[in-house]
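Justification of resources, computational component.

The compute hours requested in this renewal are based largely on the per-chain cost of generating structure records like the one below. Each record pairs the submitted sequence with a full structure-token output. That output is archived, and it is also reused by downstream analysis tasks.
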Amino acid sequence: MTLVVSVVALLLAAAAAAPSYSWKLTPSGWGPVRIGMNRIQVSKELQDQLEGDAFDNEGNCIELSPEREELKGIYFMFLDGKLSRISVSAPSKVATPRGIGVGASAGDVRRAYGAGLAAEEHEYLGVPAEYLTFWLKPKKAGVRFETSAESKVEIIHAGNDSIQLIEGCA
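The structure output for this chain reads:
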């Protein structure tokens, strides 16, 4: 009987594994955190509370981050109560399945994502800084890399068309 209880306890602990940098950031989400979830569901999967402020007076757009120190640099954007985008910046070590994380070069991104990658001039930094966007499903599921004037990835956004938003929800 104690063996059965021990096995069940191990299975439950594995099912509720703590967030890990081994989780890959994809257009669909990060580990068990999926685009389309609500705030309560995301908090449950992260085993952490989310904190932050609304970008608008109505609370329809909010960007939150986990409280735990080891998850710093990871942000969750909710539009109309649903997770629409996950963003990572330093000091986060989260990477995409193709191995691209914060600090990678624009050349690394181009090699990893190939001809499907669209490049645009960075809104505030100008050339050579840019936005490199890869759509898995056009305007519905993608990943966007913001690069610096040194052509290094500073921020990665994954999710729906909100990955194109550059100032909060605008």
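DSSP finds three helices and eleven strands in the chain. The longest strand covers residues 82-89.
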